[in-house]
């Protein structure tokens, strides 16, 4: 499932040039394509490396983004572990034998919920990042609007022609040193933590790193699965007196992964060392065939800016998250989903001057919040809970295990983090029309669905069996509760459709409801009508036809003039 193009296939120019064909770069290209926008992706790797599967968690929000592109079912079909296999994370003293004691269990971790999921149209999916990349590569090569070029990388970015908005001279180089210069109206840096595109802007990632390192180990074992004395889990966290870390199945055919935590970064871990570490974790002399080792250190780094002129940073080029909680890769896809519709708007001519600059304004705080939470979880790793008495028999062991169970409660936000995954908001964005109703407090664990402007549209399964999200258009959606709209639907829609006709902003009108439990959606929304952005976030809620029309202009980046117009009619915007 790899794609490769020769130098003659390199286009001389591209409206959107994406440096980097990892998850964020490929998702961005496919999201743009879904909006009719062509792009060129430059990726140095000719093939996906399956020996370094760092990311394994595709959360419910990312799965919903993939659903929007028609890729969620494809990814689930390619995933080696079905959701039904296991949904829990288990902390334990070992995996095998009489010394394998469960200390604490976190159920339905990472939004792994078999059957129909409520908070989003899709639940989470455990899947190695290389498998995800293969699915995205296949989709990209099959899409006529995506030119996917492998074996080349962006090595330099020259000055923009004319002004900072472009076009930009981009130098690409292949493995033997052959260089070409391409021209791009918009340049996207999706080229990782050492991003050439970011360096061209004179930006450095700011932050720090963890004091101790970790070693990821990919291994095969034919006897481990049958030797495990605990219930199936997607992750086992082994709190050991000598070696602590994580173990989990990569597939159902005997391939496993482990992460040994708290390793001195100066120590060179050999294959023999890695095998010994794994045996120490699992607690038995099982067969261990080490496939690969990958030492790494958790980093908490964030770019001071996400864009300049027509150049934008997404994913690891803009932030490096610690992996605790599995948010890093998912945050990268969230960047791409936010930028895609705004780039499409600019290219299609309906973006106001505030639309593209809002990308960094909205996404940087999300990354900062996620990094803070992951860094806190990084202060409580398996070895922090180690106690020589945990595996002991009798009263002394029982007491140690009870104490560990209580102490491990601090890890809940790592596995039950719906407040981070779905509760982030763009309430402070210039694209969002504020209202007077109270907004839920931020919480990394608890998610309270809210239609507060800036928040993610609360999901619902409707009485007809469909997902509310299935009724959203690819542009903006004027969403009306069928139980509250009635004869006023056309009245509210008219000024919005008139504004859309004048400006070219794509708008779909949808009258929906009730929910499958009979609830009128306005009871959840706090109003009868919502204006929903292309990325499924709420831009405005209310009842006033005039306010709805003004809100569309604000949401398309035509502020502050439109905001002044809105303030004059704000009193009608929400329920009294």
Please supply descriptive tags for the structure shown above.
576 residues; alpha+beta; 8-stranded mixed beta sheet; 7-stranded mixed beta sheet; 24 strands; 29% helix; disordered C terminus
Report on the structure:
By secondary structure, this protein is an alpha+beta fold. The protein is 29% helix and 23% strand. The protein has 17 helices and 24 strands. Strands 1, 2, 7, 8, 9, 10, 18 and 19 form an eight-stranded mixed β-sheet that branches. Strand 9 and strand 10 (179-189) form a beta hairpin. Mean pLDDT is 91; it is low at 1-8 and 561-576.
Sequence stretches where pLDDT stays below 50 over 5 or more residues: 1-8, 561-576
* Overall pLDDT: 91
Q: Estimate the strand proportion.
A: 15-25%
Question: What is the 3D shape?
Answer: globular
Total count of helical runs of at least 4 residues: 17
The multimeric state of the shown protein is single chain
Q: Termini, distance in Å?
A: 56 Å
Rg for CA atoms:
25 Å
Give the helix proportion (percent range): 25-40%
**What does the largest sheet look like?**
8 strands, mixed
Question: What is the number of strand segments?
Answer: 24
Structural class estimated from helices and strands:
alpha+beta
């Amino acid at each position: 499932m790899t794609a490769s193009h020769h130098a003659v296939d390199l286009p001389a120019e591209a409206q959107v040039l994406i440096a980097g064909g990892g998850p964020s770069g490929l998702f961005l290209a496919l999201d743009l394509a879904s909006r009719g926008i062509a792009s060129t992706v430059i990726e140095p790797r000719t093939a996906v490396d399956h020996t370094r599967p760092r990311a394994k968690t595709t959360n419910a929000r990312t799965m919903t983004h993939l659903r929007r592109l028609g890729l969620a079912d494809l990814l689930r079909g390619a995933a080696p572990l079905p959701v039904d296999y296991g949904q829990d994370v288990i902390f334990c003293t070992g995996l095998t034998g009489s010394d394998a004691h469960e200390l604490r269990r976190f159920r339905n971790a990472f939004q792994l919920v078999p059957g129909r999921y409520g908070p989003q149209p899709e639940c989470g999916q455990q899947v190695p990042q290389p498998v995800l990349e293969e699915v995205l590569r296949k989709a990209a090569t099959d899409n006529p609007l995506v030119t996917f070029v492998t074996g080349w990388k962006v090595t330099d970015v020259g000055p923009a022609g004319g002004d900072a908005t472009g076009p930009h001279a981009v130098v690409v180089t292949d493995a033997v040193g052959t260089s070409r210069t391409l021209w791009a109206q918009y340049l996207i840096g999706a080229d990782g933590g050492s991003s050439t595109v970011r360096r061209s802007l004179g930006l450095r990632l700011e932050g720090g790193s963890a004091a101790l390192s970790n070693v990821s180990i990919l291994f095969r074992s034919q006897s481990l699965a049958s030797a495990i004395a605990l219930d199936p889990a997607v992750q086992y966290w082994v709190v050991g007196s000598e070696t602590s870390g994580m173990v989990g199945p990569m597939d159902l055919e005997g391939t496993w992964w482990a992460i040994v935590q708290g390793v001195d970064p100066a120590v060179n871990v050999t294959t023999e060392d890695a095998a010994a570490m794994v045996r120490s974790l699992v607690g038995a002399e099982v067969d261990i065939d080490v496939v690969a080792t990958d030492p790494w250190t958790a980093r908490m780094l964030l770019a001071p800016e996400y864009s300049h002129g027509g150049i934008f940073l997404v994913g690891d080029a803009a932030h490096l998250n610690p992996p605790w909680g599995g948010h890093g890769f998912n945050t990268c896809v969230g960047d791409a989903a936010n930028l895609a519709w705004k780039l499409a708007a600019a290219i299609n001519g309906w973006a106001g001057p505030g639309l593209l600059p809002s990308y960094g304004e909205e996404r940087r705080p999300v990354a900062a919040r996620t990094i803070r939470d992951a860094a806190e979880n990084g202060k409580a790793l398996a070895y922090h809970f180690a106690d020589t008495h945990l595996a002991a028999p009798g009263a002394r062991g029982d007491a140690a295990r009870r104490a560990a169970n209580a102490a491990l409660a601090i890890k809940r936000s790592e596995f039950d983090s719906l407040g981070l995954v779905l509760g982030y908001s763009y309430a402070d964005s210039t694209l969002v029309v504020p209202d007077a109703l109270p907004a839920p407090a931020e919480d990394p664990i608890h998610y309270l669905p809210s239609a507060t402007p800036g928040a993610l549209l609360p999901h619902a399964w409707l009485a007809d069996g469909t997902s509310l999200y299935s009724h959203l258009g690819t542009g903006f959606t004027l969403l009306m509760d069928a139980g509250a709209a009635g004869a006023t639907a056309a009245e509210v829609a008219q000024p919005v459709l008139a504004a859309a006709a004048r400006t070219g902003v794509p708008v779909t009108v949808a009258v929906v409801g009730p929910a499958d439990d009979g609830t009128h959606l306005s009871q959840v929304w706090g109003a009868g009508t919502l204006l929903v952005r292309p990325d499924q976030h709420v831009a405005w809620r209310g009842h006033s036809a005039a306010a709805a029309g003004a809100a569309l202009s604000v949401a398309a980046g035509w502020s502050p003039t439109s905001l002044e117009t809105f303030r004059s009619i704000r009193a009608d915007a929400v329920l009294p």
